[in-house]
Amino acid sequence: MITIKFVGGAKKSFSTDQQEFDVDDITIENLLELLLEKKPKDTPTLDTNNILIAVNGADSSAMDGKMTRIKNGDLISIIPVIHGG
Asked: What percent of the chain has pLDDT over 70?
């Protein structure tokens, strides 16, 4: 089982701050596909191109990006990147 923690605006997309999924040894890319399938239809869109994803507190972009493998017991944090100007 993995735990997904939603931070900031990501909470609005899922109407919760945390979810658990009974999956093991999948990529972040596969996890994002699963999350978008499970996201309530009446909540704001999650822009998967503008988020930081941390695996056990480490930025996945410093690992293998969206190909980073997630294993049983991992804590995944989804953190939206907010742009202004």
From this structure: 96
